[in-house]
Amino acid sequence: MAIKKGTIAEVTIDSAAFEGKGFGKLEERACFVKNTAPGDLAKVRIIKKRRGYFEAQLVELLEKGPERVEPVCKHAAMCGGCTWQHVSYQEQLRFKRQHVEDHIHRIGGLREVIPMPTLAAPHQLHYRNKMEYSFGDRRWYTREEIDGGAEFLDNDVAAGMHAPGRFDRILNLDECFLQIPVSYEIMDFVRTYALENNISPFNPVKREGFLRNVMIRNGYYTHDLMVNLVTFHDNMDVMEPLRDALLERFPQITTVVNNVNDTPSPSSEGRYAHVLHGPGYITEKIGANTFQIDANTFFQTNTLQAERLYQATRDFAGLKSDDLVFDLYCGVGSLTLFVADAVKQVVGIELSPVSVSKARKNAEHNKVNNCSFEIGDMKDIFTDTFITKYGKPDVIITDPPRAGMHPDVVQTLIELAVDRLVYVSCNSATMARDLAELSKVYDIEQVQPVDMFPQTYHIETVASLRKKQL
């Protein structure tokens, strides 16, 4: 039978592949199926046919594989927050290590480099310290709801996550296990309050309505709790009673913020913000340092695992008391400060002036006096002039964005040939590409995958490099 779009077929899932999709074979072609686990026998519907592969949709699970588990959350198959709840945690860890190895071998060509076992997270649920829920008037209905005759309400207040691939439809959540339980309870309270008080959710197509997002941040160590209400315009007559109702129901809330985003951008970061209660930020610890985190500050979303990621980075760097360290792409300086007490001086470099301003305040707040921070695009600022100003570093830590490092930055690192280099990555594919170039002058000694995001296919990686001995 010739397989085409719409064909129903059976496929055995052999392993996991890109974005955590199950991988099997049909007609000797790869077949990728979401919501499947290694060992599953599945009935699938072909939704895409390409020259070398198929993409398919799970229709029925015929036999469960040994790595399949029952998801904790009822929304796991539809929601984009936990794409791997149906896979055992040990298999998640094994695949993530394999994912990193595949990139290093296939993209980097570094077949002699074998990654270490993935560093497991201490908590597989309720681990996030930040959660952003979206509001809308166009609810996404699941196949089960449609088949069961669900009532379709165009003016419903839906709250939860955007349906996969849809900016205009909201998957209405009845539960969520990503952040501490009070996070979902606050979101549900705001949804109910909006319904009872005729507060309209935002419609991104018509660009009308009021309530856009509820973002919740919590301090793991401090137990601080922020509620950030993102709205399409200002209206204190609505916001102040909502604030009062929240504080009455959840007295543990330490600060309430109203970000106003009156632009087409879907960002939860508004053009301006009002502090409605408390200081407008939460405080959190990483290592010996404390950080003030406002509504729009980037901060690692898994506090405990961030500490372990930073400790792996520090261990790989082999720091000495007289070292000069450069921290490239330093953000708000959390990793910069984490290593500062072990060395003579650390210089952080970051493109965002806002982040650098916060990094300087963090250093001042923690009484760290051996850190300097420079603003600029890495490819422009990281030059011979910069090296002349601070001196040649003994150690470089680089934590670039998903796109990896600019070729000019890679070339500078090759020319510098520092004694020790540590590469922290949220994208092992671009890391592998950069490591291939860096291997001209550095030995890649260790590669440590770190599971920052359990129940997802995402993986962080730390690589230890040493200058080759000629």
General description of the model:
With 470 residues, the protein is of the alpha/beta class. It has three domains: 8-68, Nucleic acid-binding proteins (OB fold (Dihydrolipoamide Acetyltransferase, E2P), Beta Barrel), CATH 2.40.50; 92-121 and 304-467, Rossmann fold (3-Layer(aba) Sandwich); 130-294, Beta Barrel (OB fold (Dihydrolipoamide Acetyltransferase, E2P)), CATH 2.40.50.1070. It contains eleven helices and 22 strands. The strands form four sheets. Strands 9-8-7-10-11-12-13 form a seven-stranded mixed β-sheet, covered by helices on one side. Strand 11 (225-231), helix 4 and strand 12 form a beta-alpha-beta unit. Helix 1 (89-106) packs parallel to helix 11. The longest helix is centred in the first third of the chain and has 18 residues, at 89-106. The mean pLDDT is 93.
Radius of gyration: 24 Å
Task: Please name the CATH topology of the largest domain.
Answer: Rossmann fold
- Tell me the domain tally: 3
Tally of extended strands?
Answer: 22
Strand order of the largest sheet: 9-8-7-10-11-12-13
CATH class of the largest domain: Alpha Beta
Number of helices: 11
Strand content: 25-35%
Could you list the spans in which at least 5 consecutive residues all have pLDDT below 50?
none
In percent, how helical is the residue content?
25-40%
CATH homologous superfamily (4th level) name of the largest domain: Vaccinia Virus protein VP39
Distance between the termini: 60 Å
Mean pLDDT comes to 93
CATH architecture field of the largest domain: 3-Layer(aba) Sandwich
Any idea what the shape is?
A: globular
Structural class: alpha/beta
